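Sample entry (176 residues):
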Amino acid sequence: MNAAEFNQHLKALNLTQSIAATLLRVDARSVRRWQTGNQEVPAKVADLLKAWRQLAKAHLPWTADMEAILRGDNDQIERHQDYALELDALTERVRARGGPAAPWRIDLKKHSATLGPMTVSFYLLANGGFSPAHYGRADAVPDWGRDRQLIEDAIAAFATAVGNARRERPDRNWDE
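Predicted structure, serialized as C-alpha cells:
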C-alpha cells in the first residue's frame, strides 16, 4: 500500500492521524511517515485498513469499543483488529461462493441464525457488533468439519442482517 492509498483509507474511515495511531496501536509519527511515504505501510496495517473499509461499507462495527480505546486497552484493541480481519475474510469467502447456500432465518432479538435443524447463536459485543457463540443441530451431533461452510454462511447472513439494521436505524442497537 502506498501513501496515497493509505491516506484514502484514512479519509474514507474518517480517521485523524492521532485516532489512526491509537486504533493501529502505533505512535503518531509512524502514521505520519506512512502518510508521506517516508516509511512503507506494514502489511498488517494495510490489511486492517482494507478490512475496516469493507466492514464500514457493510455498516458493521470495525473497531474496538470506546471504553477499550479510552482505557488504552491494547489487548482488547488487538482482539478487535483480529476479529475485523477474520470477519472480513469470512464474508469474502462466502461472497466468493455466491453467498449463503440456503436462506437462513435471522432473529436479531434472539441473536440467532437458523437453517432447518441447525442454529448458530451470537454474543452482542460492546462495540455494537457480534461474535459467534454456539452452534448446534437438532438432527445430528455437531461436527465443525462437516458444518464449517454452513456456519460461515450463518455468520455472513447474520452480518448482513446486522448491517441492514444499523443502516436503517444508525442511532439504535440492532437487537432492539
